[in-house]
Amino acid sequence: MGGRWIFKxxxxxxxxxxxxxxxxxxxxxxxxxxxFKLQNRYKNFSSFQAHFLPDSDSExxxxxxxxxxxxxxxxxxxFVVSFTPVEYGKAKKGKLIIETDELYWSFIVKGTFxxxxxxxxxxxxxxxxxxxxxxxxxxxDKQKKKRNIVIDNIKKNAxxxxxxxxxxxxxxxxxxxxxxx
Length: 181
Prior knowledge:
CATH architecture of the domain at 20-112: Sandwich
Distance between the termini: 138 Å
Radius of gyration: 42 Å
CATH class of the domain at 20-112: Mainly Beta
Number of helices: 3
Low-confidence stretches: 169-176
Number of strands: 8
Order of helices and strands: EEEEEEEEHHH
Mean pLDDT: 81
Shape: elongated
């Protein structure tokens, strides 16, 4: 005397959380690598594919890309993740996926640069320091030499009365000449 119960179930499958984070430090245009071993969780060999997602930065590489994972209890397959930065800027980031028919591993891979330390120069062979007193004298001389051309022209016209024009006389003479013709 049992019964049968019917329920509607809606399931949603999402990607699992990342298994680990791998951080690689490398100077510009040099390759740095990190290796790790991975084995199957079952007692049989399993073929795998390893790749970075398309939105990952192109400076990352994984070797091998395909192969066989060793069974549980064995040494495991060695994976090598490489980072070769080609330009300075923000830290690079990628997501590495290793998957078999039954299992799925994901890793966040971060590529960083070593901390920059500027060179410490104690002395120089070239004297490239500016003497502040000489610079101040040059600025003072430039300010003294500045002249206002408009004011200079007004002063010149005020001193020479021959350059003052009487426009009313010019208008009358042109009017008289046009009437006479």
